[in-house]
Fold:
Amino acid sequence: MSAYAIEVKNLSKNYGKLQAVDNLSFKVEKGTSFGLLGLNGAGKTTTLKMLVSLIKPNSGTATVSGYDILKEPMEVRRHIGYVSENPSFYSRMTTMETLNYICSLLDIPAKLRAERIQKNLELVGLVDKKNNYVGEYSRGMRHRLSLAQALLSEPEVLFLDEPTLGLDPIGAKGMRDLIVQLKSSGNVTIIMSSHVLPEVEAICNDVGIFDHGKLIAQDSVENLRHTANDSLNIEVVFNRPDDNVARAVEKLPYVNYINSENNRLLINTQTREEIRPQLLEVIMGINKQVLSFGIKENSLEEILLRILKQQP
Amino acid sequence: MKFTAVVQREFQEHVRNRKLFFLLMVIFGGILMALYTEVGPTANSTNVMDPFFELFAVLCPIIGIFAAMDSVVGEKERGTLELILSKPISRGTLLYGKFVNYLIIILPLLIIELIGAYFWSQASGLSSQRWHLAMPPFSQWMAMVAILTAVAMYYTALTIFISLFAKSTAVAGLIGILFMTPAHPVGGEFLRLTGLFFGIDSFTQVPMLFKFPLSIFSKYQKFAMTSPTDFAICVGSLLAITVFIMFVNGQVFDRQNVTFRL
Structure:
């Protein structure tokens, strides 16, 4: 048995002249969580849909839980759960009716259904809404129901396409906590695409960065951050905005670039340690009213943008 | 099991969105129009069946179109197609389940109400006192019911095909109505002129092979009610076309690069 939950081999998909996914190859180990990152139109959703066997690739193939997405799409769907970025349900069905219908489509035996539905409704906190029509649901509740229906098959791989898209902060946190809870169980491999980078950071062990249909980087968040640490971000806060300091600092040979915003100055420099006291000396020589001076760690967002900028 | 689940869900949907009730009232309204308004018999009518057929030859396509116009495109509009197709169900099963549900909601309503109309016309004395026309034999009335039922099935299958490609439910309905031309008197006139062009002025002169495609024309359907052979050709070919269209629908849907949300 393969140690990988997902193995993608030279997967490509085009819509007319648009190359949505271009010769994509990657592997995801069982029990881990993998984040798909990239700007809009980078090919994340198309990749997820091909892996769920909703759309067929033009070339290449992939296995999900050991099943080929082209030759065994039904087996793939039987062993996965999928939460789409905009979950939609039949508005004139109740929660129970919806989940029972999904159970029928998944061939779950009738005697197991009630228990499984109850377990998943409890997990997503919709037990008290089980007899409500789904049409009455808020967006956040629909997302939670979507997660409940995705878990009915007791999936080996769970695909989450922008799972918190459009949710308010409380709804997003609730959804995120649910996913983290699932991840900690260790029984399911999670594949997630998201724009919310702290969310990916919190949930995923590894990330793949997509650009124009290509996977341009794949590593752990930690390793990507280490790779990106060839420069240093220093943040200086003054008691009031000061353009003189920004102008002087920008001219220093060891400074890559600066970003000034109100009384806050972000300076990207080379990583040599002796730079920091030199820089502080220059700044204090112009403006002594420094409220703070410190290193700002690269966020995943900065890493993503830097990697994307390096692309031709 | 999955097929039954799809049929059950579709039926439940059509009860809850009142489509079933609407269809019931459309057919009932059609019967009332045929029986009690000036849509009734003309000077050329030979029996009470004529006005019924004229009206229902147009109404049955509308019933089929109305029932099935949101079959696939409606799922795309609601965004539910993605949810269902991410489960281990074939697209064909989904489509055939929907089609069977449409038959379940249309056929009993149509057959029961039309049979009811026959006995009502007879029992109420409408045929003899209002129209001064004889009632046709029940077997001939049932021939009309069979043809109309087959017409409704044909248009249901055709509308599902249209719904596979339409950009919205409304567009699917409008295109369906365009395909109704053979059921319309315009289609009959087209047949008449085509026949005259070839020097044919009666369906009895048309070779057997050409009668199969003619069965979608209401003019031929009306003629078919008077001849057992033509009745068999007409109903048989309408059912065969319906089965063929549904087969094509399944194949097309299975290979289609579906847009999941419109």
